[in-house]
Structures are given as structure tokens and as C-alpha cells.
Design a protein that fits this description.
By secondary structure, this protein is an alpha/beta fold. The chain is built from 7 helices and 6 strands; from the N terminus they run E-E-E-H-E-H-E-H-H-H-E-H-H.
């Protein structure tokens, strides 16, 4: 393990993309930043994807993360929503992969379980636990940024565990691990 590293966590979305950044030194993590990219005002879905890509690249160029943890889209009742989330996630992943940053994908229940001990925890419960764990003074109005932060913290907690999530180290690794789905 490196002595010090930065983990960028992303909660992809086409309405709001949340992100959080932690610094890990040894076995201790500290809060760096969390925020969100508001996309509601943009009607064109391609503009939203472009902005997600650009903001992710900006975060990478500013904070130089060593690893990225991203929340995986989950299947709900609306397949169109899942497709939109998958596109948003793919664009954020492409930004990281273009900079050769290892990416690990976590299911929402896995993230909630890592943070609260309950895979069915609410966004509010996750946010409160992060506030307590990281000593955050206040919580944001929208909890998408705490969801992004939760992905980063989940990754820290799962470090070294092979079963943590799907990981990609670059385009070739992504293609190799997804050959069947890409055909």
C-alpha cells in the first residue's frame, strides 16, 4: 500500500452527479472535498454527458486521485432511468480510464453496508454516518455529494479485498473483462 493516496468517489447521475474525495495516509482517511454537478437545467442528454466527462477530468486534474470508486447503476422499475445512469457512469469511467486511473465499481447496497452496516440504509443515514466518521460540520442540501463520498469511503474500507467490486486499470482491462457484453 502506498503511504498516501487520494480516492475520488462518484455517484453518477444525469440530473445530479455527486462526488467526494478523501485522502488516505496509512490506515487513516481524511475528508478533502465533496460537491455535485447540477445538470437539471440542460435538456440535451449529450450535453449532460459532455459536462460529466469534463467535470470528471477537471476533478482528476485538480486532485490527482490514485483510484476512483464509482457507484454502479441499479435496476429499478424504469429501464430508461437505468440506461441514462449507465451512460453517466460510463462517461465518468471513460474520463478516469483516459488518465489510466484504476476504477472500482460498487453496488449501492455494498456502499450502504460499508458505511452504515445496513445495505438498506437511507441516503440520510449514510450522510449522518459520514458526518460522524469524517467530522463534517454540515451536510449538503442534496445528498448526491455524500453518496459520492460514500463510494470513496467504501473503497477505503474494502481495500485489499478481491471481492470488493469490479475493477478496471485501463481501456484494455475494461474491454477484456466485458468482452461478452461488448459483442
Amino acid at each position: 500500500m502506498q503511504n498516501e493516496k487520494i480516492i475520488l468517489g462518484i455517484d453518477p447521475g444525469t440530473t445530479i452527479m455527486g462526488f467526494g474525495i478523501i485522502k488516505v495516509k496509512g490506515k487513516k482517511m481524511t475528508f478533502v472535498q465533496m460537491n455535485e454537478l447540477l445538470l437539471k437545467k440542460y435538456k440535451d442528454p449529450f450535453t449532460k454527458l459532455k459536462l460529466i466527462f469534463e467535470r470528471t477530468i477537471e476533478l482528476i486534474d485538480t486532485y490527482h486521485p490514485d483510484e476512483i470508486a464509482i457507484e454502479a447503476p441499479f435496476y429499478g422499475k424504469n429501464i430508461q432511468s437505468m440506461l441514462k445512469l449507465g451512460r453517466a457512469q460510463g462517461v465518468a469511467m471513460a474520463a478516469g480510464l483516459s488518465r489510466q486511473i484504476p476504477i472500482t465499481e460498487y453496488m449501492p447496497k455494498k456502499i450502504k453496508m460499508a458505511i452504515t452496516g445496513n445495505g438498506n440504509a437511507s441516503k440520510e443515514q449514510v450522510a449522518k454516518m459520514l458526518q460522524s466518521t469524517l467530522g463534517l460540520k454540515s451536510l449538503p442540501k442534496n445528498l448526491d455529494s455524500t453518496d459520492g463520498l460514500a463510494a470513496a469511503v467504501c473503497h477505503f474500507y474494502n481495500e485489499g479485498r478481491v471481492e470488493a467490486g469490479k475493477g478496471y486499470t485501463g481501456w484494455s482491462a475494461f474491454v477484456k473483462q466485458n468482452e461478452d457484453r461488448l459483442k
